[in-house]
Known about the structure:
Elements lengths: L1 E8 L5 H15 L3 E8 L7 H8 L4 H14 L3 E6 L7 H8 L4 E4 L13 E2 L2 E2 L10 H5 L7 H17 L1 H5 L2 E4 L2 H8 L10 E3 L19 E4 L8 H10 L4 E4 L5 H10 L3 E5 L3 H10 L3 E3 L9 H8 L4 E4 L4 H4 L6 E4 L4 H13 L3 H15 L1 H21 L1
Parallel strand pairs: 1-2, 1-3, 3-4, 4-7, 7-8, 9-10, 10-11, 12-13, 13-14
Antiparallel strand pairs: 5-6
Amino acid sequence: MKILQIHNKYTKQGGEDTTVASERKLLLENGHIVEQVFFDNSSIAGIEKLKILYKSIYNQEAQKILRNKIQTFQPDIIHVHNFFYIASPAIFYEAQKHKIPIIATLQNFRLICAGSLLMRKGQICEICTQKIFPTDGIKYRCFQNSTLKTAQLTLVTGLHKILGTWKNKVDAYITLTEFVKKKLIHSSLHLPAEKIFIKPNFTYDKGFALKAERQNFFLFVGRLSQEKGIKTLLDATQLYKFNLEIIGGGEMEKLVREYAHTNSNIIYHGFCGQDFIFEKMKQCKALLFPSIWYEGMPLTILEAFSTGTPVIISDIDNLNEIVSNGYNGLHFRTGDGQDLAQKIQDFDKNPQPELYHNARQTYEQLYSPQKNYERLMQIYETVIERKKQS
């Protein structure tokens, strides 16, 4: 099969870039022909910042790039991982002209929420999800704390709702969980359920570590930001004395350093390479994941499962689909540092060996490369066949 991947890179590298690279590698390993078209938001500078207002709605240059690629490569299917801003919805129209099936993976809620997280001021917020042009997002400056940028994004998503782009020009969508699928179905997008397929992310095997090989500390890996529940985590360290190692950086780094300075049980490593992170995963008692927003499909959790590491996680929707309470980890009440401290204490007193084996089994059954490849092929083949019949 000939697969064309399209990805619009953000100004900073993130999880979506990792997903694109991993899927490309997976497809090549299984004998497929894969080519890529990349767009890069870091190229937006100077006069381009003015042009991007209309280009993000429909970029004829991106459309021409895709047209040329289709003519030379003649793909069987096109898989879009991100199209904001330079690629624009123009790529969906071009694929339709050539009658090539086109799929879009949605890693966040940006089509129904300018901030993409369904979150505002540290709380879940869904006031925009049912509105064609959600002006509340503009009012609250939900995208990068900018009225102008939020208005621009709202114009793109809203206009293409009216034009029927999301419903009629995209053959299928991939979401990472059932929870996200339901949110999209019951939103202003009005997408039919049969157009949305569920396929989680995956990770390559990081190596299983037995409980007996573990050391006496818990681990946090991720961005040090409000939505990641950093304050909840730090509150828990004040209520129960446990050894904690933190890897990552972000706007709350100063606060983390202050806590680490006054609490000898906390070790802050800052940014670290993947080899160091995976080694720590194999050594820790459990991974702590205290996010206060819905998340998508955090690779950190999947990587932890591959090492056989249980995850103590917020009980918020979506995340509670990924980690099963009492099976491959534990749930605590979202945003409740006291309950997190209690769950860590319970885990300390009764670290059930089966949690480690179940975490690894979860990885093998759901998040391994082979399982992901099988699901991806099912989706591709179904969408291609539907296109032939349409």
